């Protein structure tokens, strides 16, 4: 795989992953902690859980082989 073919994919991930993490974090915060005041600690923990869960599921998902 050449560098030019991975560059658009990298740019796509660079822009979409933070946006998706924001949405997931906001849904979790609203669902579980709606009546609680903002907490920086909880914000970091929820964000880290979303990021590491996404990375973990992506790491164990097998890649499809293309013939």
Q: Which features characterize this protein?
A:
67 residues, mainly alpha
Description:
The chain has two helices and no strands. It has helices spanning 3-32, 40-60. Helix content is 76%, strand content 0%.
Topology at a glance:
Blueprint: H1 3-32, H2 40-60
Helix pairs in contact: 1-2
**What oligomerization state is this entry in?**
single chain
- Uncertain runs are none
- N-to-C series of helices and strands: HH
Coarse morphology: elongated
Distance between the termini: 14 Å
Q: What's the total count of β strands?
A: 0
- Number of alpha- plus pi-helical segments: 2
Helical residue percent band: over 70%
Report the structural category.
Answer: mainly alpha
What integer is the average pLDDT? 82
Strand fraction: under 5%
Number of domains: 1
Rounded radius of gyration (Å): 16 Å
- Largest sheet report: none
Sum this structure up briefly.
The protein has 67 residues and is mainly alpha-helical.
């Amino acid at each position: 795989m050449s560098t030019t073919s991975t560059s658009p994919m990298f740019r796509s991930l660079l822009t979409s992953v933070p946006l998706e993490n924001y949405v997931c974090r906001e849904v979790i915060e609203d669902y579980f902690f709606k009546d609680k005041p903002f907490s920086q600690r909880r914000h970091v923990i929820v964000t880290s859980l979303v990021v590491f869960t996404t990375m973990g599921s992506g790491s164990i998902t097998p890649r499809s082989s293309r013939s």
